[in-house]
Amino acid sequence: MTEQRLAALEARLQRIEDERAIERMIASYGPLVDAGDADSVAALWADDGVYDVENWLMKGRNDVAAMVRSSGHQDFITTGCTHFLSPGVVTIHGDDAVAVCESTLLLRRGTTYDAVRAGVSYFHLSRAADSLHGWQIVKRITRLLDGTEDPRALLSDGVAGRILP
Amino acid sequence: MTEQRLAALEARLQRIEDERAIERMIASYGPLVDAGDADSVAALWADDGVYDVENWLMKGRNDVAAMVRSSGHQDFITTGCTHFLSPGVVTIHGDDAVAVCESTLLLRRGTTYDAVRAGVSYFHLSRAADSLHGWQIVKRITRLLDGTEDPRALLSDGVAGRILP
Amino acid sequence: MTEQRLAALEARLQRIEDERAIERMIASYGPLVDAGDADSVAALWADDGVYDVENWLMKGRNDVAAMVRSSGHQDFITTGCTHFLSPGVVTIHGDDAVAVCESTLLLRRGTTYDAVRAGVSYFHLSRAADSLHGWQIVKRITRLLDGTEDPRALLSDGVAGRILP
After folding, report:
1. Which segments within B56-111 are labelled E, that is strand?
2. Could you tell me which chain B residue has the CA closest to the CA of A114?
3. What is the overall mean pLDDT for chain C?
4. What are the φ and ψ backbone dihedral angles of C81, each rounded to 5 degrees?
5. At what angle do helices A2-35 and B2-35 cross, to 10 degrees?
6. pLDDT attached to residue B124
7. Are C71 and C78 in contact (CB under 8 A)?
8. What number is the average pLDDT over the span A112-137?
9. Residue B122 neighbours by CB under 8 Å, 6+ apart
10. What's the number of domains chain B is made of?
11. Chain B residues 86-125 with CB within 8 Å of chain C
12. What gap in Å lies between CA B38 and CA A148, rounded to an integer?
């Protein structure tokens, strides 16, 4: 009986730790990318992880780090910006996980900030026990919420925890 | 002694699971309503749950689903929008709970997004063990932060965990 | 063996409770300051805690409460505003902790809200078992993300959990 109760507690706690590890990764993305910390951003991804942002398909950590170091991104952070992500909604499937959040990009224009993007980010992650965060992004798909249907489907898929092909 | 420690762990873990279930419901609201997923939004409420938004009083899940399907809301999501909610602050009182968050609604206008709303959402929830999320919204009150005093009182009541009549 | 498993569970759970207490404090800040609840805002800080916001250095709870009661802040909340903070990224070091988030301040202008600030908040907290939240802010540094390098360094320091001098 004690054994069963201990095992149940361990499993419940593990679930929460898994979810929290992923929530923390998502919460870290904005601060890290706005800091221009290319290596720490890239470390959120698996070695061969994908970051698919509309017309920019990044494959692997080097591509992700290169995005942070690109003149486009450097222009954002030297102008003044925040990539603001909502709390992640996480679903664990054993050693895989799905998460979703919404985000906005605020960019400084004189004395105020313009919301130049509002989007959805869908994440497929896998457990990587020896990695920095215990989990790594296998694929992140980010789309502008521009009124079309595909980004809305990502929101539904994300909350439902569906692993996309 | 082992019995006492197990019981204490179980109670502490249950508390966290309860709070997290509600935090996740609140974090899911924006993605689900921006997806236009009327049934999943409605399932956050109790059968007879109330959603009180300024001059629109919804009673029951059908009313909530009808709001998502309304032309007003459909116009928002086909224009491009995000209902962006801050992390919920949750207080559990046995089988009742109170939560509060702030929110903004970003709506696409050409190449940028306007913040057309900024508001407070106060939630009273009740435990519903057999339901999808384990908890259901009994009443949600959403008010524009327009400079008047009533919405500010909702913020205070929410953080303090006061159950409103 | 049972003893070891119980002790491990207790330590893991304590860690999560610590992190969550701080996450909740950060999530409460926006609602409390937008409510104008000066005493509850001040109670997030240690007696001699510091709040360093660009050219305004507050020392101690009285200073923090005075900021909330200042005409500048009262103008914000009677105009209509939300101090919107992203989920905190928390790192516990025994009885100290570091947290970081990004934030924006939306201020009502007619029928929409302007983002008049976008910033980083770095927190150093210490455990205060007898206090309201179990933790208190020793120092909070808030800086505008204005394109300069110092605020970006705060973001990196915060995510890495570095305690600043």
Report:
1. 56-59, 81-85, 89-93, 96-109
2. B112
3. 98
4. -155, 165
5. 40
6. 98
7. no
8. 97
9. B98, B99, B100, B140, B141, B142, B154, B155, B157, B158, B164
10. 1
11. 86-90, 100-102, 104, 114-120
12. 17
In chain B, pLDDT over 90 holds for what percent of residues?
98
pLDDT at A124: 98
H-assigned helices in chain C:
2-35, 38-42, 61-69, 71-79, 149-160
User: Do residues A101 and A87 lie in contact, with contact meaning Cβ atoms separated by under 8 Å?
Assistant: yes
Band of residue C161 on the pLDDT scale cut at 50, 70, 90: very high
A57 contact C CB<8A: no
CB contact under 8 A, B115 and C112: yes
What number is the ipTM of this complex? 0.97
Structural domain contains residue B126:
yes
Does the residue B13 lie in any domain?
yes
Where on the phi/psi map is residue C124: left (φ > 0), alpha (ψ -120 to 50), or beta? beta
In a domain, C42, yes or no: yes
Predicted local confidence at residue B1, as pLDDT: 86
Q: Angle between the C2-35 and A2-35 helix axes, to the nearest 10 degrees? A: 40
Is residue B47 one of the residues assigned to a domain?
yes
**CATH at C93:** 3.10.450.50
- Given a cut of 90, whether residue A1 has pLDDT beyond it is no
Instruction: Tell me the pLDDT band of C38, cut-offs 50, 70 and 90.
Output: very high
Under 8 Å between Cβ of A47 and A62: no
* Parent domain of B59: 2-160
